[in-house]
Structures are given as C-alpha cells and as structure tokens.
Amino acid sequence: MSTRNTIQRKLILDTVRSMCGHPDAEQIYSRIAENHPHISKATVYRNLNLLSEMGEIKKVCVGEGADRYDLRTDEHYHMRCRKCGRIFDAPDAAARVALSGATDGFEVESVNVELIGLCPDCKI
Amino acid sequence: MSTRNTIQRKLILDTVRSMCGHPDAEQIYSRIAENHPHISKATVYRNLNLLSEMGEIKKVCVGEGADRYDLRTDEHYHMRCRKCGRIFDAPDAAARVALSGATDGFEVESVNVELIGLCPDCKI
DNA sequence: TCTCTATTGATAACGATTATCAATTATATT
DNA sequence: AATATAATTGATAATCGTTATCAATAGAGA
C-alpha cells in the first residue's frame, strides 16, 4: 500500500472543507489547533500537498504571500484584491480563456488565471 | 524630487534589458556582479521593484520559485514548464482572455495568465 | 500478534525577499 | 563651487513560507 488513512489527514481534509474562502496553511493549522493543539504544522503542510496531489483539494498559487487552498477542484479562475489580499472565485461568466494550438510546441496541461484589482469593499 | 538617477539603477535596468528569457533577481545580480562585484544584492532587489513600479520592466510572479523579470511591459501571457521551470512568452494567438462585466463588483485592473505544462524540450 | 513502512511531531534548515541603519551620493539651492 | 538634504547604497540581520531531517509512532496486511 502507498498511502494510509491517518486521523490527521482526515482532520485536515475535513477542516479545509469546513472553511469558506481560500485559507492558507497557517489559517488551516490554527483552526485545527483550536481543538487539536498537538498537531504539527509540518503535518499540515505535508498533507495539504498530498491532498492536492490526490485531487481532493486544489492548491492556489497567488502572486503574493502564502499559497491558498480551495475545496473546489474544477477549473475556475480567481480574483485577488491588491489592497486587502483576499481572493474570490471569479464568476463563470467573468473570464474565459480561449486556447489555440499555436503554442510553439508547448503542451499545456493546466491554466492559472488571476484577475488582480479591487474588491467591492476596497473600492470605496 | 523623488527618485534619483543612480548608476546602480541604470546598470540594473540595462542588464535586465540585455538578458534574454525571464531572469530572476539572483541571475540578474550574478550577471552584474561579474563586472561590478561591489553591488549589493539588496540594491538589485530594491531597484527591480522600483523599476517595475515605474513601468520600465515587469515583475512576473510564477507559481513556483523566485519572481522573474521581463523587459516586455505590454500585456502578454506566459507558459511555464513544470519540469525544467523555464518560462516562455505565449504566442499572441495561443491564449486569449475574454473578460465580461460580470465580476460581482470586483474591479479588474490587470490579468495574470500562466499556462503550465511541458516545453518542447521536456516533452521528449 | 507481529512486522513493515508510511506517517507523525519537533525542530532545524532553506530560499526568497524585506527591514534596518549608518555611510554615501545625487541634486537643488545658495 | 560649496552646502544642505534627502534619496540611495552596502552590509547584514530578520522575516516569511515552506521543506528537510530524523527518531518515535502507528496504520494495515500477513
């Protein structure tokens, strides 16, 4: 066998799924530590990476600060506020990426689209 | 007055412009240090940020590793090889992002598009 | 139950970048 | 040209996010 069902891994997955928004590893760790103060931060990082590779969650690399984690695993785009730093899912209609075959022999496997600007709160 | 014309700043700009590809701060520093071993790495980082803000060059945040710098300042997209880590400019026809107004009140100022996959060399 | 290996917890190490601060230097003003 | 002054530099410490290390622990199959 290759991966085991540890209670930590389950706990981390459940926690990510219970959190709204796009929490980073630190926030996920803090939430878990409220009830399980003995968990190690390394375990959280390790399992977030593992769960991403397993396709259970998605790691979101943004242009600034820590990586975030997303329970949505389907392809969708993000909007990041340059002022408050929060990220939001872009409405399906907001952005569409059209790929053509003219990629000079580069084989595209995935697409990362980040819309940077001002969120409604920070626009005021 | 607000910004001064230091020889370091000019040197850094010239060096970025002379380098092909998408060098990171470390590579730019090394190139400069070949002829100007007294320059400080902090000066390189500081000026790369400044020059980006001034619009002379463009900082490119990629999903992995150090930020890169680009002499092209017009909007264009990048393709990053997940194997060798190199990034390439996407051909104009390769990807087009269509933005609609349906962004839930989020005001989009700029767009960052990264196509991740395998470059021709690594595909073999 | 025993064995084996994935996983954990604790912490050190790492890479990239920014902060600090005294010394220097570019520029406006005299 | 000499002076004043504030931006900038160089050197280095500090920071942040993350990964590496490694002995101890604990799932899961035999």
SS content category of chain A: alpha+beta
- Counting H and I runs of at least 4 residues, what is the number of helices of chain A? 4
CATH architecture of the largest domain in chain A: Orthogonal Bundle
Percent helix range of chain A: 25-40%
Q: What's the pLDDT, averaged over the residues of chain A? A: 93
CATH fold group of the largest domain in chain A: Arc Repressor Mutant, subunit A
Output the keywords.
homodimer, 124 residues, alpha+beta, Arc Repressor Mutant, subunit A, Dna Ligase, domain 1, 3-stranded mixed sheet, two-stranded antiparallel ribbon, 4 helices, 33% helix, globular, DNA-binding
Summarize the structure.
Chain A has 124 residues and is α+β, with helices and mostly antiparallel strands. The first copy, chain A, has helices spanning 7-18, 25-35, 41-54, 120-123, and strands at 58-60, 68-70, 78-81, 87-89, 95-99, 107-118.
Q: In words, what does this structure look like?
A:
2 copies of one chain form a homodimer. Chain A is α+β, with helices and mostly antiparallel strands. The first copy, chain A, folds into 2 domains: 3-70, Winged helix-like DNA-binding domain superfamily/Winged helix DNA-binding domain (Arc Repressor Mutant, subunit A), CATH 1.10.10; 78-123, 2-Layer Sandwich (Dna Ligase, domain 1), CATH 3.30.1490.190. The first copy, chain A, is built from 4 helices and 6 strands, in the order αααββββββα. In chain A, the strands form 2 sheets. A 3-stranded mixed sheet of chain A has the order 4-3-6. In chain A, strands 1-2 form a two-stranded antiparallel sheet. The first copy, chain A, starts with 6 loop residues before the first helix and ends with a helix. The model of chain A has no long low-confidence stretch (mean pLDDT 93). Strand 6 (107-118) of chain A pairs antiparallel with strand 6 (107-118) of chain B, so a sheet runs across the interface. Chain A binds a DNA duplex (30 and 30 nucleotides) through helix 3.
